[in-house]
């Protein structure tokens, strides 16, 4: 009898904490995404992996962590019921189909699956917010919603040839998906979650006036980030990048106390890595603006050293916290330092590959191997925490 009811119990547990499934899957897809480059240069692939690599890293890797985090934290922040087993199965099926379709070069089908994935996640969260809410989510979560809407808009544009018929609209679709889906949530979730990583409390407003002020700042940041995509694609590319960098820097400096208060406990290696990740992300945005002719290469400072490392740090904090090992996150760790080092090697080698044609191939391979090793080490480091209950 106990054996018959065990699987539903496990599924119910995973539905309540879907990060366990999506974080694990997402990191595997990231390894698959970078493995395409060494395979291509070794002559094992018959196609150039540029688009497939980009879709896997943004949709199958980045998207997995967005779904895993918001699917876990969203209902809790609203005091609403957790995801159901049926919702978990549907979300994970769409996520898996998305990755496999892109590996099979079925780009349209893969984007359709991703569009359905984001749409279903959004519907799950909105229904809980409207019908079952017992608490008001932090105002910064407006930026997380903005990220989902940007991802939906960008993916929808890719699926409609008429909407990407010009270079400007094609670039806009890419910006909405590749940067718009992740940058607003980084700011919104970060302003709420980063203080906890740094050893303080969650970034919750203490009064109604503070909540209102945070909501207005989140609205302004969301609007300006979206505007920056249009500024870049319709005539002012450098200004668009610099506007994004300025908005991100101003928002993070305003919302988060970065200086350690007297009596604060020492921060661990991952908390230190948070500073480096955010600095690299902002540097990538600014550098891509100042050297726009090389923006594709320099954007990888944002994608790898920024988004990629931030995902690993935030996911580590979630895994430590939900496995009853929260104190472990604040420790100094050689494993964490090696992971951070490898991610920066990947970011800098990939960013430099666009400047000197003679090193492009070798640096593509160095970046791929460095990220692959970092991701594999991160997975081995946390392997028992994926299945350990708090």
Walk me through what this model shows.
The chain has a domain at 1-137. 76% of the residues lie in helices and 0% in strands. It contains 15 helices and no strands. Helix 3 (50-77) packs parallel to helix 5 (107-131). The chain is globular and about 55 Å long. 48% of the residues are buried.
Key features?
15 helices; 390 residues; single chain; mainly alpha
Q: Any chance you could write out the topology, listing elements then pairs?
A:
Layout: H1 2-16, H2 19-41, H3 50-77, H4 85-103, H5 107-131, H6 141-159, H7 167-178, H8 183-197, H9 208-233, H10 237-255, H11 269-290, H12 295-322, H13 326-329, H14 334-352, H15 360-381
Helix pairs in contact: 1-4, 2-3, 2-15, 3-4, 3-5, 4-5, 5-6, 6-7, 6-8, 6-9, 7-9, 8-10, 8-12, 9-10, 10-11, 11-12, 12-14, 14-15
**Percent of residues in beta strands?**
under 5%
Radius of gyration, rounded?
A: 20 Å
Q: Write down the overall mean pLDDT.
A: 91
Helix content: over 70%
Number of DSSP strands?
A: 0
State the distance separating the first and last CA atoms: 26 Å
Describe the global form.
globular
| Secondary-structure element string | HHHHHHHHHHHHHHH
Number of helices: 15
Structural class: mainly alpha
Largest sheet: none
| Poorly predicted runs | 1-5
Please outline what is shown here.
The chain is mainly α and 390 residues long. The protein contains 15 helices and no strands.
């Amino acid at each position: 009898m106990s054996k018959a009811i065990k699987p539903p119990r496990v599924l119910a547990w995973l539905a309540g904490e879907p990060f366990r499934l999506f974080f694990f899957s997402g990191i595997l897809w990231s390894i698959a995404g970078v493995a395409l480059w060494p395979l291509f240069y070794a002559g094992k692939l018959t196609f150039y992996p540029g688009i497939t690599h980009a879709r896997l890293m943004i949709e199958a890797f980045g998207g997995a962590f967005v779904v895993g985090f918001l699917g876990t934290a969203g209902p809790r922040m609203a005091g609403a019921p957790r995801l159901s087993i049926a919702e978990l199965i549907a979300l994970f099926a769409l996520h898996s189909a998305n990755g496999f379709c892109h590996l099979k070069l079925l780009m349209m089908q893969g984007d359709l699956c991703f569009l359905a994935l984001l749409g279903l996640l959004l519907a799950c969260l909105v229904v809980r917010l409207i019908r079952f809410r017992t608490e008001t989510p932090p105002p910064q979560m407006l930026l997380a919603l903005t990220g989902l809407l940007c991802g939906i808009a960008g993916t929808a544009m890719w699926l409609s040839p008429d909407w990407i018929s010009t270079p400007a609209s094609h670039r806009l679709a890419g910006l909405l998906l590749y940067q718009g889906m992740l940058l607003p949530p980084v700011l919104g979730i970060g302003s709420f979650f980063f203080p906890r990583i740094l050893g303080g409390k969650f970034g919750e407003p203490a009064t109604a006036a503070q909540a209102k002020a945070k909501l207005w700042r989140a609205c302004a940041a969301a609007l300006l980030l979206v505007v920056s995509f249009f500024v870049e694609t319709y005539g002012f590319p450098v200004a668009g990048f610099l506007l994004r960098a300025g908005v991100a820097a101003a928002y993070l400096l305003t919302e988060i106390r970065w200086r350690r208060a007297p009596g604060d406990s020492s921060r661990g290696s991952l908390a230190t890595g948070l500073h480096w990740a955010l600095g690299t992300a902002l540097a990538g945005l600014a550098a891509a603006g100042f050297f726009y002719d090389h923006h594709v290469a320099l954007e990888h400072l944002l994608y790898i050293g920024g988004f990629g490392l931030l995902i690993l740090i935030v996911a580590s904090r979630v895994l430590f916290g939900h496995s009853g090992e929260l104190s472990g996150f604040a420790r100094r760790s050689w494993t964490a330092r090696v992971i951070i080092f490898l991610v920066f090697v990947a970011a800098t080698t990939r960013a430099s590959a666009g400047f000197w044609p003679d090193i492009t191939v070798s640096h593509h391979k160095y970046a791929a191997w460095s990220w692959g090793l970092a991701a594999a080490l991160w997975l081995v480091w946390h392997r028992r925490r994926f299945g350990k209950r708090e």
